[in-house]
Amino acid sequence: MKPLTTETMILNMGPHHPSTHGVLRFILRTDGEVIHMCRPDVGYLHRGLEKIAEQLPYAHFMPYTDRLDYLAAMNCNLGYAVTVEQAADIEVPPRAEYIRVLAAELNRIISHLISVGTFAMDIGAVTPFTHTIREREWVNDLFEELCGARLTYNYIRFGGVAFDLPEGFFDRLSQFLDYFEPRLEQYNRFISKNKIFKERLVGVAVISWQQALDYALVGPNLRASGIDWDLRRDEPYSVYGDLEFDVPVGTSEVGVVGDCYTRYWVRIWEMEQSVRILRQCIAKMPEGPYQTKVKRKLKVEPGEIYVRTEAPRGELGFYLISQGGIRPHRLKIRTGSFSAMSIVEELGSGLMVADLVALIASLDVVAPEVDR
Amino acid sequence: MEAQGILERIKRIIGEADLVWVDDQLGDPYLVVPKEKLRRLAIYLKGDPHLAFDTLMCLSGVHNMGERDEMEVAYHLYSLRHRHQFILKVTVDRPAFFPHFYLRVDSVSGIWPAAAWMEREAYDMFGIHFVGHDDFRRLLLPTDWEGHPLQKDYQESDVYRGIGTMREEIEGVLAEESG
Asked: Could you tell me what percentage of chain A is helix, strand and coil, using 3-state DSSP and rounding each to the nearest 5?
C-alpha cells in the first residue's frame, strides 16, 4: 500500500478576487489551509503615472492624482498641490486652507468607511458594508455640491481650491456630522464589539513596531503597531497646526498591539477625530478669497523637493525634481499601500488562507495606489 | 540633529574623500556618495544611536540626460527616534553596453527591508541593477517587457505579444471588429 503523503499546492488568489480590492494577485503555496509562501504579484493597474507626469505641465497632472487613490482623491490632490506650492513658492489664502482641510478630512472619513465596511465584508459580514456605503453616499452628495464630482474630484488647485463653498453648505455638513457621530457608536455595537468579529481578528498577523519601521509602514498601519506618529500633528502642513485633535495609537485594550483588530480599531478612532476636525473647521472658517492668482504657465526653479502629507492610507510623498521648465523632470510618488503590500510577503507565510484575507483588508491596500 | 551635524558625523566615519554636499535651491541639501561607500554608510546611518535612521521613506531612481547620461538613486531617510531626516544620493554613469554589468548599485534591502520592493521598482522603471538583493525581478511590468519606461530615451515598442500599442493600430482593430 502506498504510504499516506501530504504535498503542498500552488494556489492563485486573484487577479479577480472579491477580497483583493482591485486587481491584484497572490501566488500561494499552501499546505492544506496553512500558507507556506505568499507572493504578491502587482502591476495589473499600472498606468505609468510617473511617466505621464514628466510629459504634462504641472497643473495638468492634477486630474491624474485623483486616479492615484480613487477612494481618497481629495487627499492625493492636496498632496500634489502642497508639493508644487512649496516648490514654486505659492501663497494660499487662509480660507482656501480651511476648505482644503475640510475636504481632506471628509474624504478621510469616507475612505475609512469603505475600509471598515469592506473589512467586515471580507471576513464574512456583508451587512455592515451596506451601512457604511449609505453614510458614504451622503458625503458623496456633499462633494458633488462642492465640486460637481462624486469620486474623482479634481477640486484643489495650486494656490487654493476650484470653487468656493456653496450656500448653506455648513448646515448640510453639520447635519451630516450630527447624524454620523452617533453612527460610530452604532458601528462599535454592530461590528467592533461583535464576538465573532473579534475572534477572527484578535492576535492575527501581528506586526511589531520594529517590523513596521523596517517596512516603512505609514499612517494607521504604523500607528496600530504602537508608534505615535502623525504628520498632521508632528510636521503640520496646511492649517493642521491650528486644529486640535488626538492621534489614535494602537493599544492592547482589545487584542494585541499591531494585530488586525487594532488596525481596524485605529481607523474607527480616526473617523471620530476627523469629525472633531471638521467641526473646528466649520467654527473657524475665515472669510476672504479662496484662490490666489497663479501664472498659467507655471514654472518651478531648478531643484528638488520631497513633501509628504498624511492621506488615509498613510504618508503620501511626492518627490519632485525640476530643471526649470514647465514640466517636472521627475515625479516620484511614494504611497502608503505600496509599503503595506511589501510586508504581506513576510507576514503571509504561516497564516491560514482565511487570515490572509483579513490581513490584506486590515492593511487597507488599494491596488491602484500600489501600481500607480 | 541638523543635516550639517549629520554630515560632520558621516565625515568622521568614512572620510571626506569623494563626498559631495549639494545645497539645493528648493528643498533640503543632500549628499552624493560614491557607490562603493553606499552600503557601509547605510549600515552606519541605521546603526549609530545618534543618527538611528530607522525608516527609508522613499527610494527613487532618476535618469538625467543633460551633459552626462547618468542614473541616480535617491534615498530619503527618516529617523522616528530623533525626528530628523537625511537625503543620500548615488550616481552611476549609464553605460552604452552591458547595463547588467556596469549599471550596478549595492542593494540596501538587507538594511531597510522596505527597500526590497522600492529597488525592484527602480529596476523595473530605470534598469538599475541592485547587487545583493535576494529576490530581484521586475515588479510592476510583465517579465517579458522590453526596456525600462522611465528612462528618458525610452521608445515603446510597436507590438506587445501581437497586440499593437499605437493608437492607429488599435483603432484599425476596432474598426475591423465593428464592421
From this structure: 50, 15, 35
Residue of B nearest to A368 (CA): B140
Under 8 Å CB pairs connecting chains A and B tally to: 90
A170/A173 Cα distance (integer angstroms): 5
- Please tell me which of the candidates A303, A329, A342 has its beta carbon nearest to residue B114: A342
Report pLDDT for A20: 66
Residue B32 in contact with partner chain A when CB distance is under 8 A = no
CB of B26 within 8 Å of any CB in chain A? yes
Mean pLDDT of B165-171: 71
Higher pLDDT, B121 or A20: B121
Q: How many helices (H) and strands (E) does chain A have?
A: 14, 8
Mean pLDDT of A98-122: 89
Q: Other C-beta atoms within 10 Å of B80: how many?
A: 18
For the stretch B27-53, pLDDT in tens is 788 888 888 888 888 888 888 888 888
Per-residue pLDDT tens digits for A163-188: 888 888 889 889 999 998 888 888 88
Among all chains, which residue has been given the C-alpha cell 456583508?
A126
Interface test with B, best of A49, A321, A327, A338 (most B CBs within 10 A): A321
**Residue A56, number of CB atoms within 10 A of its CB:** 16
Q: Which of B24, B54, B142 sits opposite A304 (nearest CB)?
A: B24
Going across the sheet that includes A314-322, the strands are: A303-311, A314-322, A330-334
Work out the burial of residue A52: count CB atoms within 10 Å of its CB; fewer than 13 is exposed, 13-18 middle, 19 or more buried.
middle
Give SS3 for B172. helix
In degrees and rounded to multiples of 5, residue A359 shows phi and psi of -65, -50
B59 φ/ψ angles, rounded to the nearest 5 degrees:
-125, 120
Non-local CB neighbours of A129 within 8 Å, separated by 6+ positions: A117, A118, A120, A121
- What pLDDT sits at residue B169? 66
Question: Would you call B27 and A304 a contact, using CB atoms and an 8 Å cutoff?
Answer: yes
Residue with cell 477625530: A273
C-alpha cell at A79: 498632496
Q: What is the rounded CA–CA span in Å between residue A31 and residue B149?
A: 39
Q: Do B80 and A306 touch (CB under 8 A)?
A: no
The conformation of residue A191, written as its DSSP 8-state character, comes to I
- Tell me the whole-structure pTM to 2 decimals: 0.88
Strand bridging mode B20-22 / B30-33: antiparallel
DSSP secondary structure code for residue A70 in this structure: T
- For this complex, say whether ipTM is above 0.90: no
